[in-house]
Design goal:
Layout (H helix, E strand, L loop, with lengths): L2 E7 L7 H11 L7 E6 L2 E6 L14 E3 L3 E9 L2 H8 L3 H5 L3 H12 L3 H4 L2 E9 L4 E6 L8 E4 L3 E5 L2 H4 L11 H8 L15 E2 L4 E6 L2 E6 L14 H18 L8 E3 L4 H15 L5 E6 L18 H10 L3 E6 L6 H12 L6 H16 L5 E2 L2
Parallel strand pairs: 13-14, 13-16, 14-15
Antiparallel strand pairs: 1-3, 1-9, 2-3, 4-5, 5-6, 6-7, 7-11, 8-9, 8-10, 11-12
Length: 377
């Protein structure tokens, strides 16, 4: 992901340049390919770019619209062609247009209703300079994140809590109630975090902050999705295959050939097989990464579960010659250091810490092989 952030001084005072620079410094690892800050009166904006798609090379944020809006976008738009037709953008022009510009044009036409039009993953921050209002939105499934803190005089929002802590007025206090809830897996609230008074924008929600205070509303609710009815089981299978193929295809849009995580199960292996077939058409192979036990591990498999997925993945690769499997044993580094890095990346301790550590090992192996996009199921 790229890193984005904004600070709004509700008392009208100017934002400290040094604090904005510290905030940008914390976000730089999330956007190593370009950093830009902008100060406008009582507001400040930070954009740290990570090149993932070819169109990211054309990204120039923060964007200014009609001398009224400041626009920040982190994400990937999957229905670019459809939105290009709606907006009247010619195909050659669309090929040279970043996802951020497409999202800003949607905003220029529809305002907050633009979020309903986007298929993909995104986090958006918009500042209305006319009414002094800051708007934050998160994609339908919450695959991009935004964290915020509000005091009586200031409001700040950023990709990760660590960026907020770069601001001197944001406290770094452990939320013990959240820790307790996590330990007993009870009452987990996606809006609260492991820090007191640091909140997440909920998936499919918009948060407003301005002179009238803070408000929020839901722009997408899965409960409102209509039922899909076909005449036969075969038609359901065909429709599912069509959607799955389309979903995999749009996620192959990457500056470099993507890789995939793969297990012996049906979900990740289905995605890997489809991606491998699609990459074969362009002469690329699909590297896959599988976490395996350390050498010498011995434990009898139990009914319905197994510990070493190597033989299953090898069978999948044998059936699809365009899959190149890589098997990743656990690293031998200090486990507390590994857990700390996992918490930093995820923003919270995962439900299964050791599964999470295996994922981190796979990601490290994929980066070493030159990949920066990993498909997963």
């Amino acid at each position: 992901m790229s890193g984005i952030a904004a600070v709004l001084n509700l008392d009208g005072s100017s934002v400290s340049h040094s604090e904005v620079e510290r905030l940008a410094s914390v976000l730089k690892p999330y956007g190593p390919d370009g950093q830009k800050t902008l100060l406008r009166g009582n507001a400040a904006f930070v954009f740290c770019l990570h090149h993932l798609t070819p169109e990211d090379l054309f990204e120039r944020q923060p964007l200014r619209l009609a001398d009224r809006f400041i626009f920040l976008f982190d994400g990937r738009i999957d229905n670019r062609s459809e939105l290009g037709e709606i907006l009247g953008i010619a195909t050659p022009e669309l090929a040279l247009m970043s996802d951020g510009v497409i999202a800003s044009r949607l905003w220029d036409r529809w305002g907050e209703r633009a979020f309903e039009q986007i298929l993909g993953v995104f986090a958006v921050i918009v500042m209305d300079l006319h009414d002094g209002r800051l708007i934050c939105a998160r994609d339908h499934m919450g695959l991009r994140v935004l964290h915020y803190h509000r005091s009586s005089e200031r409001f700040a929002v950023a990709t990760v809590p660590e960026a907020l802590f770069a601001l001197s007025w944001v406290p770094r206090t452990l939320n013990k109630d959240k820790v307790g809830d996590a330990l007993i897996n009870c009452g987990l609230n996606g809006e609260t975090t492991y820090y007191q008074n640091i909140y997440r924008v909920l998936p499919g929600f918009v948060v407003h902050m301005g002179a009238a205070g803070l408000s929020k509303h839901q722009f997408w609710d899965p409960e409102n999705i209509g039922d899909v009815r076909f005449k036969s089981d075969h038609e359901y299978v065909e429709a599912f295959q069509e959607r799955l193929n389309a979903a995999v295809k749009v996620r192959l849009r990457s500056l470099r050939a993507p890789c995939a995580s793969i297990s012996g199960g049906l979900d990740s292996s289905s995605i890997a097989a489809i991606a491998a077939d699609m990459l074969a058409a362009t002469g690329d192979k699909l590297d896959t990464f599988t976490a395996v036990p350390e050498a010498g591990f011995r434990k009898e498999e139990t009914r319905g579960s197994y510990f070493d997925e190597t033989p299953y993945v090898r069978q999948i690769a044998k059936a699809n010659a365009n899959i190149v499997p890589h098997f990743v044993p656990p690293t031998q580094g200090p486990i507390l250091e590994q857990i700390r890095e996992l918490v930093r990346v995820q923003g919270a301790p995962p439900a299964g810490v050791f599964n999470g550590l295996w994922v981190m090992d796979m990601l490290a192996a994929a980066r070493s092989a030159g990949h920066h996009v990993m498909l997963t199921g």
